[in-house]
Amino acid sequence: MVLKGILVTIATLLLLTDSSQSGNDDGCKPAPPSGCVYKVTDNLPTVICNNLNLKAIPTCLPGKTHPKKLIINGNNISQITSIRYDTLEYLYIESDNVLNIVLYAFGHLSNLTVLSLRNNFITDIQRDTFIGLTHLKELYLTNNSIKTLPHHAFFYLPQLKILEINKNSIASISDGAFANLTVLSELNLRDNKLIAVPKFNNTRLDLDILNLGQNKLTEIPHEPFKTLKYLKTLYLDDNEIITLPHSAFWGLDHLKLLHLENNQLSHIWYHLFLDPWESLLEVYLHNNNIAELNPIQLPWKQLHVVTLDDNHWLCTCKTVWMKSLRAVIDNSTSIMYVKVFF
Ligand SMILES: *[C@@H]1O[C@H](CO)[C@@H](O)[C@H](O)[C@H]1NC(C)=O
Ligand SMILES: *[C@@H]1O[C@H](CO)[C@@H](O)[C@H](O)[C@H]1NC(C)=O
Ligand SMILES: *[C@@H]1O[C@H](CO)[C@@H](O)[C@H](O)[C@H]1NC(C)=O
Ligand SMILES: *[C@@H]1O[C@H](CO)[C@@H](O)[C@H](O)[C@H]1NC(C)=O
Ligand SMILES: *[C@@H]1O[C@H](CO)[C@@H](O)[C@H](O)[C@H]1NC(C)=O
Ligand SMILES: *[C@@H]1O[C@H](CO)[C@@H](O)[C@H](O)[C@H]1NC(C)=O
């Protein structure tokens, strides 16, 4: 606790004492890199320094107005060091060969709302990496090399709404990695190496959308999403899930879209869809190993989309009803496709 206090104090001091390099060219030296352009985009003063083979974030920028948007894409910046442009609201450092971010690099950027670090080679995220970003709403870390999310990884981002860490190499997520993300609504962990569903029971997450697709999940634990009461969209597709416990979706009273396609599911528990029963609109079950489904296992009349093709349907007394499935639900205008092969 004491250490935490000291760190916060150091960050605050940095914020208070360092007002040089404020982002205009009035006396700022060295001169801004030639090729960096100042212009107004979406009514915001913007500086763009794309594809200039820059080795570092420039210490001076062109333009007489302090920029609110800075785009530095396609350069060769192996390390992100402290960024002093405290007027920034949008910052894009994409495809820049970034390997690491020094701690407190964003400590001055308390007005930043969008930070994109897509398409780099960042391996490490620490609790203090994002310290100071008190107004950040969207963080994009898509397509990096992050292997693990430590305890309190996003602790200092109290306003974050969208967190995209898809296309990384995340194999483990510490308990408490998502602590303090109380307003997060979209969490994208797609295309990683997760073998277990992260624990959400000790967080105050209130997600709308959770994407765990394209990972290495084989098992789903007992009531794993119970605390995500208002979840509307859940992606579990493209994993290696063999079985779902009957409690897999317990607590998900508001779930609308459920993606379970491209797994190895065989048995579907009788009451599996009971909790999201009232709210479900789309259920994707194609390309699994399902042999049987009972006619009262899904709320057919209200569903807009059900995909059942590419399974191993058995032709038994229990499944004979499925032959007439098309007739039962086809008249509903919004059905996208239902293909059942016998
Ligand atoms: C990027 O920088 C590294 C050294 O940091 C260098 O080895 C590499 O050649 C540079 N790449 C380009 C395209 O300039
Ligand atoms: C941050 O935003 C607030 C509210 O829009 C504004 O008053 C303040 O001047 C901004 N800070 C900087 C350093 O631009
Ligand atoms: C991911 O980032 C690397 C490095 O910038 C890039 O070469 C690659 O094309 C990106 N992949 C995608 C799918 O964008
Ligand atoms: C994080 O949450 C804890 C309580 O869980 C709170 O004490 C702390 O002030 C929060 N920190 C930030 C930076 O919001
Ligand atoms: C969260 O769930 C795990 C099992 O999935 C359990 O071991 C742990 O005690 C639970 N924590 C809380 C705070 O409920
Ligand atoms: C579908 O529509 C056709 C013609 O409009 C009607 O004859 C048939 O009974 C309807 N089927 C169902 C299941 O409502």
From TrEMBL:
SUPFAM superfamilies documented for this protein: L domain-like
The signal sequence is 1-22
Q: Which superkingdom, per the lineage?
A: Eukaryota
Q: Has keyword Protein biosynthesis?
A: no
Q: Got a GO cellular component term for this one?
A: extracellular matrix
| InterPro entries (alphabetical) | Dev_Immune_Receptor, Leu-rich_rpt, Leu-rich_rpt_typical-subtyp, LRR_dom_sf
Output this protein's name.
Uncharacterized protein
